[in-house]
Amino acid sequence: MYFRFLIFSVLIFSLLKTVNAQETERVRFKHEKHGAIVFASGEDYELKCDIYQPKSDEPRPVMLAIHGGAWTTGTKFAMYRHARILANRGYVVMAINYRLAPKHKWPAQIHDCKHAVRWIREHAKEYNADPDRVYAFGYSAGAHLASLLATTDKDDGLEGEVQQPYAKHSSRVDGLIAGGAPMEFSWIDAQSTTLTYWLGETKAANPQRYAKASPVTYVTNDDPVAVVFHGTSDTLVPATSPEEFAKCCEKADVECQLILTRDGHASAFTRTSLLIDSLARLEGLLAKQECYERMERMINWIEEFKMAHNRLPKSATELETFLILRDDGPDVSEFADAMTSNRDGHSFIVRWGIAESPIVSESVGIDGEKLSR
């Protein structure tokens, strides 16, 4: 147990050090904007997006940017400043419009957002985007929609009509930043008509519709990591709403960081430092998740070797040879990926529970000194 605690402590320290260093020494990306691209249309609507593409030799992660406006107003232009910040940090940003109430009532808005996720995955090569790293950022109503992208899948009945070639792509995002988000509607009086322009009925008349529109309804342990920020002086959306979402995530064992500030609803959006802080936190959670996945893969491989040879592998080379010779084993690149990134603090640490293996010192060094390189 002490070994596990020691290695875990070294890992977390290294991850935090890495994230802080990346924020202060981060490479700034130049980017180009592709404006007014039609990504969806119907009989009575046409939806456009702006794509901010960083200049890079490698595919870049995607951030879907979803504007607020109480589901009834607003456009992609509201996300202009935030999109530039994200693009400068290396994200392909897709800032979208979506159908607005009262002309288009719920669930048209989430249908459009889910289509946008599939669209960017289908067109990833055109914008040098990585379809396996698609995240969502939204504020207010946009944060509500972004949160549903993180928590719902095809079994939840919110996909909408999916046509080819988009059906082959998932509409779920891999990480979430949500600000000023209404995560549930317990704070809306049952007889209130406040949201009937969007949801069609009062909560008293149709409580199921309000529950189905609430991200907290869908939180499960397979949801992606999330960072949620909210102003405690917000008089439009009470802070109890994101707090309830954070509690649901904790109960489901989902990594979620809640940032509470003294801001009001509007000021929390305009203070872009909150986005920068949230992005750094999201990247830290993703790095931690990546580390755990590497550890899990490596531990399983070592256990397989032990079952076959009744001993632990003497070196990484011996383990690699054993795996590659198997028909169902990982390829060379997958093994190398699990064995690298010591310098970034994401090393496969893998060894906890099997500290006697020589691979421990080979990969993390004596007392883990390789982790902090």
Structural class: alpha/beta
Radius of gyration: 23 Å
Order of strands, main sheet, comes to 1-2-4-3-5-6-7-8
The total count of helices amounts to 12
CATH first level of the largest domain: which class? Alpha Beta
* Annotated CATH homologous superfamily of the largest domain: Alpha/Beta hydrolase fold, catalytic domain
CATH topology of the largest domain: Rossmann fold
How many β-strand stretches?
8
Contiguous runs where pLDDT drops below 50 for at least 5 residues? 1-24, 341-356
Overall description:
This protein is an alpha/beta fold and 373 residues long. The chain folds into 2 domains: 22-288, Rossmann fold, CATH 3.40.50; 290-372, no CATH class. The chain contains 12 helices and 8 strands. The protein has helices at 2-25, 80-88, 108-122, 141-151, 196-199, 207-212, 240-251, 265-270, 273-309, 316-324, 332-339, 359-364; strands spanning 31-42, 45-54, 60-66, 92-96, 129-139, 175-179, 225-231, 256-261. It has an 8-stranded mixed β-sheet with strand order 1-2-4-3-5-6-7-8, sandwiched between helices. α2 (80-88) links the parallel β3 and β4. The longest helix has 37 residues, at 273-309. The protein is globular, with a radius of gyration of 23 Å. Residues 1-24 and 341-356 have low confidence and may be disordered. This is Carboxylesterase NlhH. Pfam families: BD-FAE. Residues 50-246 form the BD-FAE-like domain. Keywords: Hydrolase, Signal. Residues 1-21 form the signal peptide.
